[in-house]
Write a structure and sequence with these properties.
Blueprint lengths: L2 H6 L15 H27 L7 E3 L6 E3 L3 E3 L4 E3 L6 E3 L8 E3 L3 E3 L5 E3 L6 E3 L6 E3 L3 E4 L2 E4 L6 E3 L8 E3 L3 E4 L2 E4 L6 E3 L8 E3 L3 E4 L2 E4 L6 E3 L8 E3 L3 E4 L2 E4 L6 E3 L6 E3 L3 E4 L2 E4 L2
Antiparallel strand pairs: 1-2, 3-4, 5-6, 7-8, 9-10, 11-12, 13-14, 15-16, 17-18, 19-20, 21-22, 23-24, 25-26, 27-28
């Protein structure tokens, strides 16, 4: 084959690396995989360097890596030291907390001591065993239980604030004593916790601290509302001062719903005391 034939012979296609299009997702995945492989290779070396040898009185954790101190021991500067249970305390046998609690009737003063709960006279030990409360009839004052001075005609009450006693029915508190309530004639004691402790009987009204009889005029009846004169006029009568006067109903009018006034019929209007036709 001559030189000219070689020049005209077709050549196989050549790959130009500079012109290969880069597949971005594939390239990124390969790059991340190489980093993860390096980390996984170096991780055991790091873990072995950072981990500490298991000390005495410790055991491997039941889950995960590492170790933890046995029950009755606590971690102190990479060592498991025994829990020191102070006097008047007991071992909790727990892996958390201080490892001990005070006995019933004792309280913790700091992180290493239990002292007896001093119950004052008139008090009792709380069920928790860590504090005290006062008996009924006593009140807490600082670190003591003082007896409540109960006046005559009074009884004890349970109250979170205010007085610890209240007066019997028929008596009212006057300072530190219970005095009898003066109930006037024709009145009775009520159950109100404030204000007037008595109420007038039916047919009577309060006036100047007494219960006066309601004077009901002719053509009227007793009205027990808490306001007004204490009586109302019958139907067909109107109140005038302390009497009930007959109502003269004009022509083309009738008594209204109350029965104590009149009003004009339909198509009529009031004019100078009469009912005149609407124009």
């Amino acid at each position: 084959m001559d030189r000219r034939s070689k020049l005209t012979e077709p050549r196989p296609p050549q790959t130009n690396i500079a012109h290969i299009p880069t597949d971005t997702p594939t390239f990124t995945a390969l790059f991340m995989a190489s980093i993860i492989a390096v980390l996984l290779f170096a991780l055991p070396v790091f873990a072995q360097t950072a981990s500490q040898p298991m000390p005495e009185n410790a055991s491997a954790k039941s889950y995960g890596d590492g170790w933890e101190c046995n029950i009755g021991f606590r971690l102190n500067e990479n060592a498991c030291v025994a829990v020191v249970v102070p006097q008047n305390a007991y071992d909790t046998n727990r892996s958390y907390g201080s490892g001990w609690e005070c006995l019933h009737g004792f309280r913790r003063t700091d992180e290493a001591a239990c002292v007896a709960v001093e119950v004052p006279e008139g008090g009792f030990l709380d069920p928790s065993g860590e504090r005290w409360r006062c008996l009924r009839g006593y009140i807490k004052v600082d670190d003591t239980c003082q007896e409540i001075v109960l006046p005559a005609n009074a009884y004890l009450v349970v109250a979170s604030y205010g007085s610890t006693w209240t007066c019997e029915r028929g008596f009212e508190a006057t300072g530190d004593q219970c005095t009898a309530i003066a109930v006037p004639a024709n009145a009775y004691l009520n159950r109100s916790g404030y204000g007037q402790p008595w109420t007038c009987e039916r047919g009577f009204f309060e006036q100047a601290g007494l219960c006066e009889a309601v004077a009901i005029p002719a053509h009227a009846y007793f009205d027990d509302t808490s306001y007004g004169s204490g009586w109302k006029c019958d139907r067909g009568y109107a109140a005038s001062a302390k009497t009930c006067e007959f109502i003269n109903v004009p022509e083309n009018a009738h008594l209204d719903r109350s029965g104590n006034r009149w009003e004009c019929d339909k198509n009529f209007q009031k004019s100078q005391g009469l009912c005149v036709l609407n124009n």
